[in-house]
From TrEMBL:
Keywords, in A-Z order: 4Fe-4S, Iron, Iron-sulfur, Isoprene biosynthesis, Metal-binding, Oxidoreductase
Name assigned to this protein: 4-hydroxy-3-methylbut-2-en-1-yl diphosphate synthase (flavodoxin)
Superkingdom of origin: Bacteria
Pfam families, per database record: GcpE (PF04551), GcpE_C (PF26540)
UniProt cofactor note: Binds 1 [4Fe-4S] cluster.
Species of provenance: Reyranella aquatilis
Pathway recorded for this protein: Isoprenoid biosynthesis; isopentenyl diphosphate biosynthesis via DXP pathway; isopentenyl diphosphate from 1-deoxy-D-xylulose 5-phosphate: step 5/6
Named cofactor requirement(s): [4Fe-4S] cluster
Positions of [4Fe-4S] cluster binding: 272, 275, 307, 314
IspG TIM-barrel domain: residues covered: 15-253
Domain IspG C-terminal span(s) in chain numbering: 268-356
Described purpose of this protein according to its UniProt entry: Converts 2C-methyl-D-erythritol 2,4-cyclodiphosphate (ME-2,4cPP) into 1-hydroxy-2-methyl-2-(E)-butenyl 4-diphosphate.
Length: 383
């Protein structure tokens, strides 16, 4: 009997769609999204918030377009954004057309909610004309009345039926550049709906537990629900829905993907919860270190352990390790082996320096490898 490697997540096979220049689905990396909470009509405030999300690493950003003032501001926002912009549309088909014309990379829309077949046809034409994909966004809190009457309450079957009904409308108009979400604030409902939908179609899935709550409770709920789906290979793009600033959603999303070994961005800090054995203040050290290295995007792993019980073992598996020792003198490990010792006074400054140096080395090696590959490509082309 063959045993699958325990870190090996087998992702569900899905077709690929493009959100602007960013691929979603297929064998593309799982992307991290968030949504602005500024008034979209206030382009300056919206762009400033997008900038903060970009610094946190967001791949795709969504903005709400409930009125003409919002879609009028969209061209400026799209031009300023470094990542694809998704326009969130609910009921008014004209907003969808205006958003496509304004340069939105994707429309979040439920085609069954925007009126007649002619209106749907107009929206699809605008999307095709402007290279715009779509997301069908089903939410347990806003299911269609006929489905609630049929099933009696929001349930996975009702959510999947709603999603497939909307998908069929787009398919009937020969439009297939879309992904689907079936979100709920109830973890069990959301997970069951996504599991059923994953079996029912091969479209890319946008995964999330909607209205999850504040940063602590929402992170826990999202990690349980989204984490179980991602672990099962379900999910091509994610949004962690928190009552917090959107850049926090991005950071939590990347931490989730890092924990599942699905995607790596920035410094992964492995640290102990601290106990009476600790030889320095682990909690304050990690708090300060996280803030000081937040700007680093290069993937690497750093262990910060309070004593020698687990410290050396954790350090063996990390790029940089730090383990508490006696007499306020601690051990620093580089690439898993003891490198030098360090006194308490400058722990954070010293570790930040080591991390920044390692990041520079990794990036330089990556650039060198890129130059070699480019040279080899030119040489092969010349032959």
């Amino acid at each position: 009997m063959s045993i699958r490697p325990y870190r090996d997540i087998q992702r569900r096979k899905s077709r690929r769609v493009m959100v602007g220049s960013v691929p979603v689905g297929g064998d593309s990396p799982i992307t991290v999204q968030t949504m602005t909470n500024t008034l979209t009509a206030d382009a300056e405030a919206t762009i400033a918030q997008i900038r903060r999300c970009e610094e946190a690493g967001v791949d795709i950003i969504r903005v709400s377009c409930p009125d003409e003032e919002s879609t009028a501001a969209l061209p400026r926002i799209v031009k300023a954004a470094k990542v694809p912009v998704v326009a969130d549309i609910h009921f008014h088909y004209r907003r969808a057309i205006e958003a496509a014309e304004a340069g939105a990379a994707c429309l979040r829309i439920n085609p069954g909610n925007i009126g007649s077949a002619e209106r749907v046809r107009e929206v699809v034409k605008a999307a095709k004309d402007h290279g715009c994909s779509m997301r069908i966004g089903v939410n347990a809190g806003s299911l269609e009345k006929d489905l609630l009457e049929k099933y009696g309450e929001p349930c996975p079957e009702a959510m999947v039926e709603s999603a497939l009904d909307h998908a069929r409308i787009l398919q009937d108009h020969d439009f297939h550049e879309f992904k689907i979400s079936v979100k709920a604030s109830d973890v069990f409902l959301a997970v069951a709906a996504y599991q059923q939908l994953a079996e029912a179609c091969d479209y890319p899935l946008h995964v999330g537990v909607t209205e999850a709550g504040g940063i602590r409770a929402g992170t826990v709920k999202s990690s349980i629900g989204m984490g179980s789906l991602l672990w099962a290979g379900i999910g091509d793009t994610i949004r962690v829905s928190l009552s917090a600033e959107p850049e926090e959603e991005v950071r939590v999303g990347f931490e989730m993907l890092k924990a599942l070994n699905l995607r790596h961005r920035g410094v992964n800090i492995i640290s102990c919860p601290s106990c009476a054995r600790q030889q320095y203040d682990v909690i304050r050290t990690v708090e300060a270190l996280e803030k000081r290295v937040a700007h680093i995007t290069t993937p690497m792993t750093v262990s910060v352990i309070g004593c020698v019980v687990n410290g050396p073992g954790e350090a063996r598996e990390t790029d940089i390790g730090f383990t508490g020792g006696g007499s306020n003198t601690h051990q620093v490990y580089i690439a898993g082996v003891p490198h030098h010792r360090l006194k308490d006074a400058n722990v954070v400054d010293h570790l930040v320096g080591l991390i920044e140096k390692k990041a520079a080395e990794i990036e330089a090696a990556k650039a060198h490898e890129g130059r070699l590959k480019e040279a080899e490509r030119h040489r092969t082309a010349a032959e």
